[in-house]
Amino acid sequence: MADGRNGIRDRQDQISPLLSVILATKNRPEKLKNSIESVLNQTFDDFELLVVDGSKDERSYSIIKEYCEKDKRVHYFRDKGESPAAARNIGLKESAGSYITFHDDDTIMFKDKLETLMNEFAGEEDLGVVYCARIDVDLRGKQHYTPGRFRCEKQGYSKNIYRKIVTRGMVDSSSAIIKKECFEKVGGFDESLKSAEDWDMYLRIAEHYKFKFINKPLYISYLSTNSLRFDVGKYEVSYKIIRDKIASHLKRTDKLFYLIYRLTLYYFSESVYKAYTTLRTRSGGLPQKY
Q1: What is the 3-state secondary structure (H, E, C) of the chain?
Q2: For residue 7, pLDDT beyond 60
Q3: What is the pLDDT of residues 228-237, one digit of tens each?
Q4: pTM reported for the whole predicted model
C-alpha cells in the first residue's frame, strides 16, 4: 500500500491529462533515471507519470523525488514491493487519464512511442488496445526484434486476438496503450499472480475489445539478472492459475479451440517454457540463477 510520502505535489488543482503512464520500479536505481527520461522526452506530452516504488533502499526515492520537484507531470507512490500486479493496481487507482500505458524501469521508450500509439485511437470507438513491437537486449548486449517469427502479427487490427494471446502471448506489458474503460469493465490486475499478470489482463480485455498492432519497434527492453520474466518458479504457479481461467473461458465461448487447447497447450506450454529458459541460459542469454 501507499505510504505518507505519496503526493509529493498536490494534484488537486491540475488539469486531468489524456494519458497516464504507470512506471513500477523495484531495486533498479541504476536504470530508473534513463527510463524516466525516455518518458519525459516524448513528442506527445499530454500525460502524467505515476512512479510506483517498491524498492528497499532510498536511492530510487531520491531519483524520483528529484523529478517530481522539477516536472509537474511526475508523481510518486510507494508500495510494499510484493508483486508487479499490486504496484500496477496502485497506479491504476491513482490515474487520472482516459488512457493507460505501463512502463518498466528496464525499458526505454523511443521518442515517438506515445504519439504513434495514441494517434491510432482517433475515431475508433471499439478499439481498446493499441500495441507495438520492441527491441529486446539480452545480457550479452545482443538485440532481438520482438515479436519474433513465430509470434509475428500483421500490421492493423488483430483477428482472433484471444486465441493469439493464448498461444503466442503477443502483447507485452509495456507495448500497449489501453483505454481506461477496459479496466473499468474487467477490473484490475489479479494480485494472486506473482508473474504473467499482464498476460492474464490482456486475455480478459480481449474478451470484450478490439486490438490493433503497429509493426514497428517503439521501445527497448533490457534483460536484467533479477527479471521476473525468467523466474520459472513464480511463472509455474501463475501459469497454472491462468491456464484454468483460459480453459473455463474457452469451454463457454469456443468449444472447438477448447478441445485443441486441452489436448495440447494446456499440458505442454509449461514444459516448453522450461526448455526455452534452459536453452537460453546455456547460450548465455539469460542469468544462471533466477
Answers
A1: CCCCCCCCCCCCCCCCCCEEEEEEECCCHHHHHHHHHHHHCCCCCCEEEEEEECCCCCHHHHHHHHHHHHCCCEEEEECCCCCHHHHHHHHHHHCCCCEEEEEECCEEECCCHHHHHHHCCCCCCCEEEEEEEEEEECCCCCEEEECCCCCCCCCEECCCHHHHHHHHCCCCCCCEEEEHHHHHHHCCCCCCCCCCHHHHHHHHHHCCCEEEEEEEEEEEEECCCCCHHHCHHHHHHHHHHHHHHHHHHHHHHCHHHHHHHHHCHHHHHHHHHHHHHHHHHHCCCCCCCC
A2: no
A3: 555 666 677 8
A4: 0.86
